[in-house]
Design brief:
About 25% of the residues lie in helices and about 15% in strands. The chain has about 450 residues and is α+β, with helices and mostly antiparallel strands. The longest helix is centred in the first third of the chain and has 15 residues. The strands form seven sheets. The protein has a three-stranded antiparallel β-sheet with strand order 4-3-8, with no helix packed on it. A two-stranded parallel ribbon has the order 1-11. Strands 2-5 form a two-stranded antiparallel ribbon. It has one domain.
């Protein structure tokens, strides 16, 4: 299709040619879990359909999510044992107001919500990342008093200038990790690193409730339909009966459930053990007599369960401006450019035990939870299980139009490099290269309409 024909098709696409999904203007992004708040606490409230049975668990989990953990032995036995090396003292230290993490504003500012995952290749049998013998699977740039952090982390930026075919200029920025002052000496040059920005929390319960059969139906690893898109399931293990365990959470879908993801964060981000992650493979060697554990495990199962349930029962921000002609035009452009091939607009959840709030809901998350090749420009050179260095899980788009209301700034993609949604689109490559090309060749008014639609989500 020529550029002129493409522009005409996107701008004048007839109503009788638009699918029901493309016409969908229902603002209830999270079904009955949708909230319509736009202020700082837009991500910070329970689902409107919260049941009395889950109310206590939600608010207890909220407490453990937001309060700082302390060193052991501490005055609060249920909250001690942090570190001795860590990235943050609390969950909300990275997920501020349950939103995305904040990017450092200068090279001198130590990142908190931007974590650095590391590994030394993959296990040949399981595909799991192999920990570095000195520093584990994640670098901790803070420590308890009397200890030196594992490493000093700062971020510099590489600037990339470009322009659209119509002459409109743009600027992209790529983060460059600066790692120095290693606690136990420099690791082997083969160390693989990947910066990961803490994502927003609301909606994870709904994503876990999507049936595995739905994800299997969306997957097209061999591109059987010939559309150039080949989403793959992330497989993180196998059950005793041989059935695969599908990963859903994390930028490369490394974790299968919200509970696993929460335990992983306790472990890697705060140095806290659970019954899922019991060892200190993410901690540099230290004197355990000087810094004792806070219990075995440090995060009891009931606490982990409350935190996971809290995360799963946060209300999802609803859409706004759904009848605005500019937004509707942008929605049509989104579909015509095949963005919806990966960012699946509408899904149906199944039944999740003890969580009726997220069960049997029609949701609009704009994700397929599959791995897609995003091109060399977004490669982190660190494969994880099924995900190659260039593959990433499709991030949900719900709530992205509310992010700026919370922090006064936005950061998109796995390492927060994109300060705007426009920049995020321009970083797309690989399977999304054609969509990026089409976006760049749209008239400026159509580009603005597409961005208006994304802002409505």
């Amino acid at each position: 299709m020529s550029i002129g024909i493409l522009s005409t098709a996107l701008t004048c696409w007839g109503a009788d040619q638009i699918s029901e999904t493309e016409f969908d203007t229902d603002p209830r992004t999270g079904g009955d879990t949708t909230r319509f708040e736009r202020g700082r606490d837009a991500f910070n409230r329970p689902t409107p359909n919260l049941t009395p049975e889950n109310r206590i668990a939600f608010f207890v989990g909220n407490s453990f999510f937001k309060q700082n953990w302390i060193a052991a032995p501490g005055s609060a036995n249920s909250r001690d044992g942090i570190g001795p090396y860590f990235n943050s003292r609390s969950c909300t230290g990275c997920h501020t107001f349950d939103s995305r993490g904040l990017m450092p504003t200068s090279p001198e500012e130590a990142p908190v919500a931007l974590l650095v995952r590391i590994s030394q290749g993959l296990d040949s049998e399981t595909g799991a990342p192999l920990p570095d013998p000195l520093y584990g699977l994640q670098l901790q740039n803070f420590s308890l008093p009397g200890l030196k952090p594992e490493v000093s982390i700062s971020i510099d930026w590489e600037t990339i200038e470009g322009s659209y075919p119509d002459g409109t200029p743009y600027t992209l920025k790529k983060p460059v990790l600066l790692l120095s002052d290693w606690l136990n000496g420099s690791p082997e040059p083969s160390l693989q690193t990947s910066a990961r920005l803490a994502p927003q929390v609301p909606g994870v319960g709904l994503l876990e409730a999507i049936p595995a059969s739905t994800l299997e139906g969306l997957a097209d690893p061999e591109d059987a339909d010939g559309d150039g898109i080949s989403g793959r399931l992330q497989i993180v293990g196998f059950r005793p009966d041989g059935s695969p365990i599908i990963g859903r959470f994390g930028w490369k879908a490394e974790q299968p459930t919200v509970r696993d993801q929460s335990a992983s964060a306790f472990h890697g981000d705060m140095g806290l053990s659970t019954t899922i992650f019991t060892n200190d493979q993410d901690q540099a060697p230290y004197d355990r007599t000087a810094f004792p554990a806070g219990g075995e495990p440090e995060v009891e199962d009931k606490v982990l369960d409350h935190v996971a349930r809290y995360s799963m029962l946060l209300g999802v921000p609803g859409r706004q401006n759904t009848e605005d002609p500019e937004v509707l035009r942008g929605q049509r452009i989104f579909h015509q450019m095949k963005c919806a091939t990966c960012h699946t607009p509408k899904l149906r959840t199944g039944d999740l035990p003890d969580l009726p709030e997220v069960s049997q809901q029609t949701i609009r998350p704009y994700t397929d939870l599959l791995l897609h090749d995003m091109g060399e420009g977004l490669s982190d050179d660190r494969p994880v299980f099924n995900a190659s260095a260039t593959e990433w899980r499709t991030p949900p788009l719900w709530g992205i139009g509310t992010l700026e209301n919370i922090h006064g700034q936005t950061a998109f993609l796995h390492d927060g490099r994109a300060a705007t949604m426009e920049e995020a689109i321009l970083w797309h490559g690989g399977e999304a290269e054609q969509s990026r090309y089409d976006f760049m060749n749209l008239p400026k008014s159509d580009r603005e309409a597409l961005l208006a639609f994304l802002q409505s989500l």
